[in-house]
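We modelled the chain as a single entity of 1094 amino acids. Its sequence is:
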Amino acid sequence: MELRVNGEIVDPKLIGRTEVDTSTGMTTQIWYGVPLKEGENKLSVSDEKEITETVTIFVVGAPAQIKVETVETRIPADGRSTATVRGELLDERGNRSNRDAIVTLTTSAGKFIGEDEEPAQPGFQVKATRGLFSATLQSGIEAGRVRIRAATQNPKPKAPNFNFQLEAFTQLEFETNLRPSLATGVIDLRFGRRSTNFWGSFQEFLPADGDNKYELNIRGGTFATGAIGEWLFTGAYSSDRTLNQSCEGFNSRLFRDVQFYEQTYPIYGDNCSRETVTPSRDSLYLRFERSPSLLGAEPDYFMWGDYGMAEFTRTSQEFTGISRSLHGFKANYNLGNFQITGFYSPDIEGFQRDTIIPDGTSGYYFLSRRLIIPGSENIFIEAEDFDRPGTVLYRQQVIRGTDYEIDYDRGTLLFRRPILRIDIDPSGTVLMRRIVATYQFEGKGRDTNIYGGRIQYHLSRNYDNSSWIGATYWRENQGVRDFELYGADAFISFGKYGELIAEYAHSNNESEILGFVSGNAYRFELNGRLGTDFTGRLYYRSTDTGFSNTATTSFVPGQTRYGALALAKVSPTTQLRFQYDFERNEGIAPRQLTSFADLFEPRFEPLPGSRVDNSLRTISAGLIQQIGEDVTLEFDYINRYREDNRPINKLRTNSSQLRSRLTYQLTDTLTFRAQNELNLSSKQDLVYPDRTILALDWAVSPGIAVRLSHIFFSGSQFKSDSITSLDFFGDYKLGEDTTLTGRFGMVNAQAMTGAVGIRQGWTLAPGLRLDASYERIFGDLFGKTGAGVRFAQPYAYGRGASALGVRGGDNFSIGLQYTGSPDFQASARLEHRTSSAGSNTVISATANGKISRALTALARFTQASSSNQLLEDLGNTVNLRIGLAYRDPDSDKFNALLRYEYRNNPSTTPDTILFDNGTGYKDHTFALEAIYAPNWRWEFYGKAALRNSTSFFADDLVGSSTVTLAQARATYRLGYQWDLVGEARWISQPADGYDETGFALEAGYYLTPNLRLAAGYAFGNVSDRDFDNSRNSSGAYLGLTVKLNELFSGFGLQKPIPAPPQESKVNPETPLKLSIQHSQLSQQYASGGEKKWK
């Protein structure tokens, strides 16, 4: 007998045993180790004459799909509750794969807890064993919908997208935590001379106006939270400062999250953390919130404070989308299937949009404005089709602290890792990266405000097919410049068959150059899938030249583009691809700038240049052929007809191009790509030259790959230019247009190691990672496009991003990070960029660790110049910080902090080049402070600081000064009700003849634990030689301090915990009798998938 598998005869050597039944004449033959392929296998047995039997066997294959879900649908947003996330790996036929793999989980809120299989990699890694995986997600403290992404390496990427990762999504709700009420606060009353308020703000003691009258001063602050019925109330108030005010004096900042360089050493221990829950630019924060009973609905809330605009950035909103950070009133309410959102923000500042081309380093990138409103910025990295301005293929928001830091005074960005200029997506499209920054700056306008709203009707809130129709209105009043935007949008999901997006927008804008302008914008997209054999897309998008929205994705005003794309599978290994595309550009392109005044003068929009009136029609037909399991060939014939309708430069070009592409998966982790674009016509298209692309991708770990690529240009306006790049890249997306973003309000002591930002890289050893990049661009990539002329500029204003080009040059970076020990972490990076215009060297290093059990050291060094085009002549800015902290874990009697900081040119700006004014500056700062409490009665605190500064106004004009500070305080508690406090302070600046001395002595008596009566005496003296403003003051004062622990009707009052019952005394010689009861516990699953215990 013969055994055949898929028509192939099985080797007779695999026959293991043959049995013959003599009574029946039946022969039984057994084969061992018969090779089968993944998927369907047809086995047939035959004798010499005919086939006697055929059977089909399916073999589970490698993972081709991933599925993820949560056991729970809702958990409280209390920072402690957990949800189980589980999933499985499926093969192409939907059967569970029996392979093991590493799955990377990311979440938009909360955090995964438990053991991370690869802690050095971004995200949370779990191991899928025989296709199954699970993890535990701990909730955060903010209620809302949470999106969870599961991804693993795709062992066999396929055309046309060649996705390197398999990914799936699910959703969970963090519902409002109706916690018991909590209230705390203080009210302080003081009667005495105004100028002797030693314990108040520094500016209140010995004020320059000399006002020394007696006054009654009342100030206070409070925080409260707790359930009121089905609503959670959270509120805070401060009578003498804004809630967001920091030690740096930022009174107008939005949000209270701090950057790396703003962090202070925590006083509650090395592992402590704190979160900001009441951010407000003024003195009041209020929020009433609840989670509606509707599954999938966002929380209902009414609030006053700082907020973002998440409800105005839906998938269906591009032209009506708003990404802003504001302060004021905001409300969101669900009424059945309707969701209504409204807001009002008073006293807004000037709003600016800048777009910057990176130079391959991490910074510094200068914005066009200085004195940025802290916390108001939104920073994005966009990737645009290099050949088609206005076609943004992806847009990712980056997070302050995690991805970048910003100097609000001089307006600079420094990223955690270098940003390369050029990228190649898996389909072979050449992309140009750019940095988009929107922010508020200190303006001079008054009586300004923003108000608006959105109403959205949910056709379905199910996660797999969410659908809605919405309308948006936005009105911004800035005095002489007003802006109005309104429109409607829709997102209709057909489940696995596709989706429909439609949008209309209209804007009215007071242009600083053109006056009142208005315009419309339209968008229509239909993506459809018929089974697995056909995929189609229809699209139409158009913007009038007068349409404006600077708080959304980049677009080109006056551009219209429409077309269709079809992809049909005609056999298991063959696909046909057809595309039609039409693009029209009309309007005014940004003017090419040459003078320093035009380049550096801040403005809201680009200066108008030459008229644009052209069109491009593109028709393509192609073939995708799979050869075996590892090779894919693609061929496309492309015809382009370009027409320029300007009277003085009419142009018609008809060109054809052949694009061929090879993708060869050499191993499971190594993929080679080659692409060639060859012009077949005698006349080449001006924008599309002959081009050859070679790329090699190496998947060093799940989700992380190294890409080496090279691009050759030939002919057209780029002549013989070329681009070479080497970079680590990873995937952090939570969806096609949703990234892992959010305002971080949490700070912890061990966050110092993230200052360099090696979030992805190659793990050399446990805890040691390498990250590197290289990019070489031979020749400047400027020239003409359908949207106008590209030219060198430090930043593009407003909607002028289409005029940005790429400057040639070389850049490289290499970074190392060590996190293998809880007692020591360090990271360092070296970057360098050089070109014909200049160079920039970026050095970043940070380290923290335990010198001993009680002594902790922190250090950080940064050096960088300017990364903007045309700003290469700016000098380096250097910053060095070193800190030592002494805290004995076995005794808290003595604690000390030592700090040293060196700064060089911390205030250099583009004005240094424009006005040729000297802003060279160096300073050294030393500070030491300590606290000593030998027992509960005595407490001593002291601080000493010195700063030496040198300013270089010109080559022959140098100024130097030294400022010193000394402070000492002693506290003695006579008993549980009496205390005595004395403090002295001295500040001196000898070069200016300035000295300030202050002294205060106070006695306090606690009438109750929450009520303290105080009396004291304060004295102060200022000697100011240069400004002849010497003054002194002294006098007695009375004070009364009330500690708040409840508000109205006992809200927030913490009831005492009953004392535990007294332990009964047992004779040690008397035997104890223990009664043990045993019960059985078994786990079951209900129909809804939730765990039940029986």
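As a brief sanity check on the tokenised model: Residues 2-59 form one domain. The two ends are 56 Å apart (CA to CA).
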